[in-house]
Amino acid sequence: MNAQHKTQAKVQNLAHKSLELSLAAPQVVAQRVGRMMLAGTHPSARDQQEFYRMGSEKVAAFYESWMGMWAQACTSYWQTAASMYTTPMLSASSSNPLAAFGVGKATSRMVTQQVQAVTDVLDAGISPVHAKAVRNAKRLSRTKR
Hints:
Blueprint: H1 3-39, H2 45-86, H3 105-142
Helix pairs in contact: 1-2, 1-3, 2-3
């Protein structure tokens, strides 16, 4: 599997997670708001525990997301820097007259690497939120009120 196919698979995985998140998040919000409405002004201990969990999960997912994105961005930065160091200088030749303008296999590889880096950073950001939202949607859908 070459780099473009790996990148395409990562983009499709990111799109799949985004779709799942877009379906799970409103479901969780609806279930929790409904639970709040049913609890009224005197929520049970179980309801209070769920409401506390709701807030703490959001904070934890936010921090996990930002830390994952930061770590992945740093990794991608160093990978790009290393690849630029190892990329041979382009020179115009009869086989590639546009090489002097930076157009060629090296440029194509760099673009693919940058798309992959952005995809990896976005995936690192959405993964914790996706995991919690999908898990909550499953858990709350089977919970009796």
